[in-house]
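Worked example (supplementary).
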Amino acid sequence: MDWVFLSELAINGALTGLLYSLFAIGLVLVYKASSVPNLAQGGLTMVGAYVVLALARDLGMPLWLAIPLAAVVMFGLGFGIERVALRRLAGRPVVMILMLTLGLDIFLRGTTLAISGGTSRSMELGVSYEPLLLGDIFISRIHLVGAGVALALFVAFIVFFRTRTGIKLRAIADDYMASWSVGISVERGVGLSWALASVVAVAAGVIWGEIQGVDQALSLLLLKGLTVAVLGGLDSILGAIVAGIILGVIENVGAEFLDPLVGGGSRELIVAAVLILTVMIRPHGLFGRHDIERV
Amino acid sequence: MAGTLALAEPFKVGVCYDLSKAYTFATPQVSQAAMDVAKLINMQGGIGGEPVEVIVRDHGNEPQRGIECYSRLSREGVFVFDTLSTPVSLAILPRAMEDGRILMQSLVGRGDAVDGTVFEWVYPVGPTYWGQMANDIGYIKQLHDDDLSDVKIGYIYFDYPFGQEPIEILKTLSQKEGFELLLYPVPLPGSDQSGAWSKMRRDNPDHVISWMLGGAHVVASKEMQRNRIPMDKYISVNWLNEVDIANIGAEAATGLKRGTNVVGGQDVPLRLEIINKLYDEGEGSGPLVNTQDVYYNTGLAMYSIIFEAARRAADLEGMPITAESYKKGLESLENYDANGLMAPITVTAEDHGGGGKTRIEMWDGETWVPQTDWIAAYGEVVWDVVRESSSKYGE
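After joint prediction of all chains, the assembly is encoded as:
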């Protein structure tokens, strides 16, 4: 057994998993406020990356300015989605809101394709691709940066949910009817959760856009991100972080052993198995609230 | 839409493409080339005195929508179709065979469709993935003085039919030539390849053949850098273009190789003529930047062949062109080089591929430099696999 090699697989798997956590945090934010898995988070991530590129490449802004400005734009977009689309569905069955997010995802993909075309573009953050050496272990610097961003956002949201506004959001997540009755604006809270998820989408879009280029494929991160969110517990930001690490390690190390046995393709089998087993055995995930159960 | 002549019913080609989903990295350039070639032909009097027309429709890479496109355009009198999508091509193929309509499937679809004795109405003109892979191995064999016995070849591929398709040929050639074959499957869309490349660094293959697309090449190049694997080990399938090079970084991509079935670069006579007669006059079919891409050249080559076959059909059988006369036109193509864009092809009733030559070229930091002549290696091995597979069609 080559322990150094397995360690490299585990470490790089954990870092990649944290990049999926970065995506999953956006899903969790929306779920906490509206109890709906946001199927448009992939589309939002792609749009976030395109907005950064539009500001940086088309308008010539430096990236350090384009990224926070894109976050502001996306914050507004998130609020806008709640105001224009979601508010009309208040009181409707959850499945209708779920379908709305699916429709929104298709709309965002179609719109960006019409405006920006299908050609992939590079983010060019300037991160070196030379390996970071930990003994004989080769670590990817961009994955390290992305993992750092995920952890920073995790800490920021932990702090945020202890602020007055954050506590209101938690109250909405607990019981929106009760929140309404004590004067908390549920609409504003849901809008804020979408706005924050859209800001997270910018972070995920920038990091993943740097790794794989900015194109329609960014929206495909949804499946893996959703798996991480479900495993962690759909309403738990801590769960998204821990589940990302677990899934990344299992996937990377597991494929090393399973691929030779099944002739390849085991990574997707592992992800599918994790998703199915989580839903069957522990629907509320690792850290989610126990009231998330099968219907 | 092409068509500046107000004459009789035009010769129409149904271009049912994925313009909105998986193949959008290439379809805009290829369809633009198709329309430009048609416009140029019409400016020069059409074919047989009649204009030509390409009808472009989106199928979103969905087989059912592809069939709808085929059915609708068939009712409009179209009998030559091009899908540029493997799943859609597979869905349409049985209908085209039954209806007696021509299915062009250059670069996609069943590799065994080159066997014209079985696939009477299907024409994968140009190299199939099987032929392209055999040619890659032929190139590597040249590098090792015709002896692959101590050579390790890694194969990194999308773990779905596109990437899995050449594995059979690779295994056959591994047994024949004695090289060690190492497989590295990557799940779609190829954004996470860290495990595969860490393993690759440990295995240290002499060459890495890649069957991936678009952004996955970018991820691969960064993983190669992280693992300090020299870029000149990387030999890509033909689906790697100037956009991918720009995203990798022109300097960082130095040494990278690709197997190609068309001439790259912009100094191609047909392209220059189109720029001069169409784009300089504001008559181009899309953005000028698309014409600077190897996929545009691919489209020029594909539609040079499609319209040359129509021209020969008109010469051989007269107007109007029918599916049967068009078939004869295709099968009369002999040493035709698609206006200098491809290795000469010869299509016959038995060989619908036309020869399957490719060449290897290397990115030198600024441009693509050919590393070989046009080659078609292991023809018998490829045809054995083709016949083995085609014999099972319809079972």
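Two points are worth noting when inspecting this output. Chain A has one domain: 3-218. Strands of chain A lie at 132-134, 137-139.
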